[in-house]
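Need tokens for this chain, all 283 residues.
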Amino acid sequence: MDADRRGALALIGGGAVLAAAPGWATSLSLPPLELTASQLTQGGWARGIARGGLTLDLDGAAIPTAPDGTFLIAFDRDARPAATLSGKAANGWAASRGLTIAPRAWQIERIDTPLRPPGVPDTAFQRIRADEVAQIAAARARVTEAQGWRQAMVRPAAGRVSGRFGAQRIYRGTPGAYHTGLDIAAGSGTAIHAPADGVVVLAAAAAFTLEGKLLLIDHGMGLSSAFLHCSAHAVREGDAVRQGQPIAAVGMTGRATGLHLHWGLRWRSARLDPLLFLPAGAG
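Here are the structure tokens for all 283 residues:
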């Protein structure tokens, strides 16, 4: 293999820039692959740009790029400590680079009682829940041209943070489910605003059994927001929304023990920490 197709991506500047081996795409004055902003940690994300028509994959999964070459990747709450970002040019030149995903010290509460086994749901609940889950899956599968994934997000509601992403209870050594979003305690009817531009892909007309009046917004590139327990929605399915626009109101519909907004973020199937998408100190 000649030098143009040999080599590796080298990490430069603490993980900010990825540069190609000498001899490839020498007409480019900028690195072929660059991370422009990142939170390389569990529940985190990275935005970047692939130049020269480079195609990408993350751990073998294809990563789409926008027409300008920009892209988004993200890492689940339980992401492994390493990931591989690979690029390939049309002439066959290929390279890969390992990314170090920093672990998080999650809020863990150890409870000296056994984890209660879930009760057996009745047939009616199973049927209703299956339909709700199907609606959510169909909404998340929708692909839109939303561009909110490019933006630094804003806090969707005023109020006290009452629950943090990733928190988990351990019942006599048995882990319970971890908290999948950011909870913001607020009064009934407090306005919920779009944290970034997007398209409404689901606005539940009737309260779902668990999520209540659920609102889902696609921000593009596989990134979506979920707003749970709303008392009402100010937008409808198919609406394009702008960052900061009122979209719903805080409530306690569905399975909720008090008035609050549960804001969840996903990239594809990865669950993400909303606080890592906000400016420092916003939480």
